[in-house]
Prior knowledge:
The protein has 336 residues and is α+β, with helices and mostly antiparallel strands. Helices cover 26% and strands 34% of the residues. It has helices at 40-48, 70-73, 90-100, 105-118, 134-146, 164-181, 192-198, 216-221, 226-231, and strands spanning 2-11, 14-24, 29-33, 55-60, 63-64, 75-78, 152-156, 185-189, 201-206, 209-214, 236-243, 246-249, 252-255, 265-270, 274-277, 283-292, 296-301, 306-310, 325-330, 334-335.
Amino acid sequence: MLEVINIHKTYQDQPLLKGVSFSIADGEIICLLGASGSGKSTILRIIAGLEKAEQGDVRWAGRSLGNVPVHQRNFGLMFQDYVLFPHLDVFENVAFGLRMQKCDRKMISLRVAEVLEQANLRGFEKRQISELSGGEQQRVALARALAPHPALLMLDEPLGALDRALREKLIDELRGVLRRSHIPAIYVTHDQEEAFTIADKIILIHDGLVAQSGSAPQVFAQPANEWVASFLGLGNVITGIVIPGGVRSSYGDIHWETGLKLGQSVTLLLRPQASLVASGGTINGLVADIIFRGHEFRIEFKNGLHFLLSGGVNNGLPLPQPGQEISLKVHQAELL
């Protein structure tokens, strides 16, 4: 449906996008994920027609959108601050785009009722924006974006202004609304958990390029490079040299049979999930801190590495304490 082809863009005389390309299929939800300032929102603005790319093209169903004005693209865009009209009630906010399309009164009433139902806002029609919570305002903004039947919906950090507890509650609702709408969507965030929860496909943006794209399980299982693994917090990324029985690194000797040539330089991803063992584990270290995280404990070593222990029994061994030297068997050690 949508093709973004080799997009280049500079910002303050510095290259921001250096050839970004991706596509989105009918009904697919993709997530642009990257650090703040990586150009994610700029990509959305170029797709919407609010900014011009210096090189490259955006195509819809094979047709270039380069000369198509914003109002003729029929793309919906939802911003982080929602941009709701405070002088209008919920019904009129949601109906705004339909009135701009000059729809008749009956069609407007039916469509507003439909999208308010989708957004779990039935009965809110006459409520004033000032009377709504942050989560309710977010859903009104989403209903307004959906009401005109956009060909594509773009959401720019839609949950960024909400506290974490409310974000976690709303993310599942938001995915459900997008699924029921069957509208292809591009979701921008810097939050990995949001991206993994909502997206069919994740596109990681780094240094002006697509660092990796794929489903959440694919990206989690096979990060393309060191930056992807570090950014997603998939574990400890360690460089070292292959020695007999393991890898020698600045963190000490890691006991793991690599099957690689002695003396070869390697980069290891040590997944955070680990088991406490009496001795001879994958890695040994001095505990700096231990943090309870609900179902697990985060073990932080003095050398900067961190691992997760299940809240249950750890091979019959007592939970380690700060200052204690321990041995861990790390699960799913992988070469990058």
